[in-house]
């Protein structure tokens, strides 16, 4: 019985962590989910992780990922970063992340104009 309870508890913790850290599972509105799905069509998973790494950490981004980001558009970029920054565990630093989001966008637009 304790093994079953332990496994159930572990499963619950994993599901809770996934919902907390993966915004696509947390989006409740149909329109927002559609926008989320639409915005991630052209960006590779690696580029998406790089973008998140730049905005929420000290990551770097390649010129190729900048091109993908600009191709998706500013509305997608702004919306996706806003969804992530709205999560309770990071909302206290939202202003900082939104500034980094805008700085990344400016950088990527300048990269695409020089290419």
Explain the overall architecture.
With 115 residues, the protein is mainly alpha-helical. It has one domain (27-114). Helix content is 77%, strand content 0%. Helix 3 (30-39) packs across helix 6, helix 4 packs across helix 5 (63-72) and helix 4 (45-56) packs across helix 7 (94-114). It is globular, with a radius of gyration of 17 Å.
- Rg over CA atoms: 17 Å
Separation of the first and last Cα atoms = 62 Å
Mean pLDDT, rounded to whole units? 74
- The quaternary organization reads as single chain
- Which structural class matches the secondary elements? mainly alpha
- The parts where pLDDT drops under 50 for at least 5 residues are 4-27
How would you sum up the major sheet? none
Q: What is the β-strand count?
A: 0
β-strand percent reads under 5%
Q: Which percent range fits the helix content?
A: over 70%
Estimate nothing, just give the exact number of structural domains.
1
Could you list some keywords that capture this structure?
115 residues, mainly alpha, 77% helix, globular, Prolamin-like, signal, Prolamin-like domain-containing protein
Sequence-ordered SSE layout with sheet pairings:
Elements: H1 2-21, H2 23-26, H3 30-39, H4 45-56, H5 63-72, H6 74-85, H7 94-114
Keywords: Signal
Domain Prolamin-like: 39-109
Organism: Eutrema salsugineum
């Amino acid at each position: 019985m304790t093994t079953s309870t332990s496994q159930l508890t572990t499963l619950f913790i994993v599901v809770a962590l996934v919902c907390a850290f993966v915004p696509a599972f947390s989006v409740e509105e149909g329109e927002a989910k559609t926008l989320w799905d639409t915005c991630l069509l052209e960006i590779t998973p690696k580029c998406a992780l790089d973008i998140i790494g730049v905005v929420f950490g000290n990551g770097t981004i390649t010129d190729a990922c900048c091109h993908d980001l600009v191709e998706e558009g500013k509305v997608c970029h702004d919306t996706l970063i806003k969804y992530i920054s709205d999560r309770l565990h990071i909302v206290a630093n939202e202003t900082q992340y939104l500034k980094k989001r805008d700085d990344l966008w400016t950088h990527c637009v300048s990269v695409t104009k020089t290419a």
